[in-house]
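User: Hey, my collaborator sent me this sequence without any context and asked if I could get a structure. I don't really work with proteins. Can you help?
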Amino acid sequence: MGRPEHIASLDGLRGLAAVLVVMAHIGLVFPSMAALHLPIMGSEAVGLFFALSGFLMAYLYSEQPVTRAAVLDFLVSRFARIYPVYLAAVVVVMILSVAPGLDYIQPIQGMKDFVRHVVLLGSSGVFWSVPPEIQFYLFFPVLWLCLGQPRRFPALIAVLMAFVAVDGLLGLPGPGILLPSKLPYFLFGAVAGRLHAIWGPASRSPLIGLLALALPILFMSYRYVLPAVDPGFWGVHSAFASAVIVALVAWQAPLSARIFASAPLRFLGAISFSLYLFHVPAMFLARHTLSGLLPEPLVIPLTFVIAGLAAWFLHVTIEVPARQWLVGLWRKSGLRSGLIDRPAGKIEASASS
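Assistant: No problem. I've predicted the 3D structure and written it out in structure-token form, which is a compact way to encode the shape of the chain:
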């Protein structure tokens, strides 16, 4: 029996990370909340997103032969998964940015900035994290070779190891929209995904379940609980921690799976990308509409609900249909039919991850 291509607990981890990003922007949408100096864990959540991407790509693909067809299938699936809903979010933010009198809080500054975002070089709001994600997908075939056939590419592996070592010693800038500043997150995640594919998909150990629950709490809170030892977030230390957390959750020990594979978190994981992209516009418009009609303590939770409903709507009307349509076009294209074919299910597995 083959290993499962879908790991339910990672859906829940992705959903939790999306919620943390939403919570990190409460003070942005509601300035009065910023005065309370609440913990902000958006960077930690994005670090988990990056490690998750590396993990899933390695887990799904590292045992597959690296062929032209395989690489093109991979690139098409990732483009179809990311770009259509990303482009829709960019257009929405551009409309809000130029709307007279609206004063949108994370604007795209003019047509030149809009074009930068369309070609995946923009950094307004949450959009900064999408360029390094896309750049990682373009880089992944190189990593795919290393993970699948490590004895054939020792020099390439040595270069990647040296890069991580230099990054750990010197620290590369962050957040940044270029892959080198975030590559350790993807690399550590990919190594964890490859090891998971080798070792097996699940564990019954209560200790692993306990660690899978406790480490994310420590990861999200250590900068606030232990400020004296805070080395800053973006760096090799947090990249390694992110990958370890993803690996522990992926083992799906019963204790942790009760939480991470629960229906609410898996639902949030399913809509997480749309929620990530659209929560600020949705919450901003909800606050703009409801402020003055309702007291702010009631408006704040309502904006959460509205953001979730908007993300679900965009997930089912744009994200999923566009992904299916583009992957379907690629499957039927003459370019793909002229290559050595791969199981279509693998395309769907990557596209839905």
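In plain terms: The longest helix spans residues 296-332. You can pass these tokens on to your collaborator as they are.
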